[in-house]
């Protein structure tokens, strides 16, 4: 009886206590930080949902954050409280603040740690991944794999990249001949998969050869990536038990295949080592150099890195290619300029001859040709500015005392939050990119003599699609090289016309309508969804014609 009385009297006290705690968490703890209006029960869930509801719900969460940034009048950062579902997220909107998170400091020599921010992607990269590792474990992995992604080494892989691009051209030729509307997503993903397979494992994954002859690595990997498709900003589908179990099964299946292949490759290279002068130059071969006995620990580590490279290295590059084809298709001056540059460098006769381009790239002047593709490089840069396929998430443990200084001098502590450098916002900052922030203007990246920061006068930290600092992208040179080769071979050979979302608007006489910044206006905006990386929602429906 006494116990009941005690319970009944303490209930109201407990309720008051919980209410006060919740009130503190929702309204006081981050009161100084810019944010949407929080609700006692839902935190920012409702407010965020309201923003989502103002557009197509399938759009990428970074696009939604961009709209929140506008509503809040462009603060340098804002917080999103989705507790208890997720930790508080701090969305970073200013390049000056992003730089404080990505740079190396005395206290955090490898920048702000990843912590558990990448846990959701564990099935795609394994527990030993370079992407999620921290501290000395990360450092030794990065040191081991850096040489495999160094520019000099990658250039030596040009013949194999060109082979894969030739297959890509054959496929686009077929699409052009059929005159049907095709989705660019599949050929681009298969191309980038083939390249990353060859570069990292010295393996022909035959992703571009159709489902019946593709390597099982491709089939399982694609199924695995699709379990992450979020057609609704933060679709809850991916958290469902059934989806998670399916994902775990596919991930295990992929692990088994990759471990088997790594063992076979190791054996093959060991046997060949004494006799063969033509050694494999793949990332895997470099990492296994000097490893005589492949113990289970090394096997796990190496296989997880291969899984990571496959994961990080194909969807991102494929998304960039699709967006570049699209932006060029609606920006006539940029298309003309890039074609002119390619004509000047490779000669007009090469416009429809990949053999010719191949010969030139593999000749002694190949490297110089690649380095002189300045307008093409500007197209790549501008595409990645407007449509960054990836972002960065870090976690800063409670009690670290990690402060950032805002542009107005105010100092804020970010302990206990997930820190998200949101490139989609940072790279469209009007203070940096001016009135053309949303337009595709490759010229902004061309040399302007006398400017200070980089050739364009834009602060270097305001362009960060590969992130910056010690944890920047290890594969950025590969992505750049691949894109240059693809563009050299395709941009004069084909004309791409968008169909459906993002199609060009025409006037009553059927002429395309040119907007203020040299781009054709469109019927409706094409946008990214989130499927691990950002990808065009309709998988880039295009009509392709031979020029
Ligand atoms: C356009 C193409 C690409 C983009 C936009 C991109 C973007 C990024 C970004 C933003 C990060 C930092 C992630 C973070 O801070 O959490 C990153 C890291 C990484 N990327 Fe890429 N990436 C691209 C291509 C590639 C390729 C081709 C590879 C090939 C293997 C690759 C492998 C990696 C790896 C392993 C890391 C982790 C590096 C580390 O933590 O040391 N990426 N990438």
UniProtKB/TrEMBL annotation:
Descriptive protein name: Cytochrome P450
Alphabetical list of Pfam families matching this protein: p450
Organism this protein belongs to: Aspergillus lucknowensis
Entry similarity comment: Belongs to the cytochrome P450 family.
Gene3D superfamilies to which the protein is assigned, alphabetical: Cytochrome P450 (1.10.630.10)
Superkingdom, taxonomy of origin: Eukaryota
